[in-house]
Amino acid sequence: MDITIIGAGAMGSLFGSLLAQSGQNVLLMDIWEDHVNAINSQGLGVESDGKTDRINIPASSNIQKSRKSDLVIIFVKSTQTEKAAVQALKCLNDNGLVLTLQNGMGNADKIAQKVHPDKVIAGTTSHGATILGPGLIRHAGIGPTLIGMWSGKNNTGLANIKNVFCNAGIDTTIEDNIHLIIWKKLIINVGINAITALTGIKNGKIIDSPPTGELVRAAVKEACDVALAHGIKLPDDSAEQVFAIAKATGPNRSSMGQDVDHKRPTEIDAINGAIVSLAREKKIPVPVNQTLTALVQTLQENYK
């Protein structure tokens, strides 16, 4: 399968390495030229269990050098989704599909404005990865990947993608109600990302302090209320699921935490900020998420 990955950061590089090692024809696309040059000159370094493997994958920072693909996977930050969707359209062959495994809410809808909605796949993954430097990542965690057609219409290509992913060691399941799955992942991010980004703590620390735990519960409760107002019923134990994920990924810094550490723009608008926007549509007060959103926005606007 010809696969183009737009956004070869930690997660894009990880998926690219796994798919390439399984025999797929993968091209990594990214605007970070030092990273692209390092991959092309010495291979992509993937650290796992104390050892580093080098995988030969072509990479490019020039969209003009892209090729027609059966599958385009978008792994850019949510702020770059619209631009990536335009690039994806240029990369697709006639029967090609676009998959987003990005964090936050609204990415699939943005892609479906540029690419035919019946060609858009959305999903979540519990794999974890961290950028260590140009051309080098760490595989920080393994977990299930869930995918489904965003329009709800069947597409025979979806089963093929699942098989390709599974053969690459990416445990993948097809979900009929992918909208619910996206909401469940959003709730996890709502409970962990902003709090860890603002406090500098690692994921596992949110369960060590009662005040922090109460803050997580409040943010998650607001998000679940907003979801219900939009017709999505989330599990009653959603906060406990957040704590379980935080414990399982205890030594890790959330993606938003890493963005703040490196003074990069965050995805706050697509996570807690999405809850604020969706709450406004239904006239629901969400003071905790509104405060977390404003604090992260203030922090990133004042990076030195």
Core attributes:
2 domains, 11 helices, 4-stranded mixed β-sheet, N-(1-d-carboxylethyl)-l-norvaline Dehydrogenase, domain 2, 304 residues, Rossmann fold, alpha/beta, 8-stranded mixed β-sheet
Description:
The longest helix is centred in the middle third of the chain and has 22 residues, at 178-199. With 304 residues, the chain is of the alpha/beta class. The protein folds into 2 domains: 2-176, Rossmann fold; 180-301, N-(1-d-carboxylethyl)-l-norvaline Dehydrogenase, domain 2. Strands 5-2-1-6-7-8-11-12 form an 8-stranded mixed sheet, with helices on both faces. The chain has helices at residues 10-21, 33-42, 81-91, 107-112, 156-167, 178-199, 210-229, 238-248, 255-261, 272-282, 287-301, and strands at residues 2-6, 25-29, 44-48, 51-55, 59-60, 69-74, 92-100, 120-125, 128-133, 136-141, 145-149, 172-174. Strand 7, helix 4 (107-112) and strand 8 form a beta-alpha-beta unit. Helix 6 (178-199) packs parallel to helix 9. It has 11 helices and 12 strands. It is 45% helix and 21% strand. The mean pLDDT is 95.
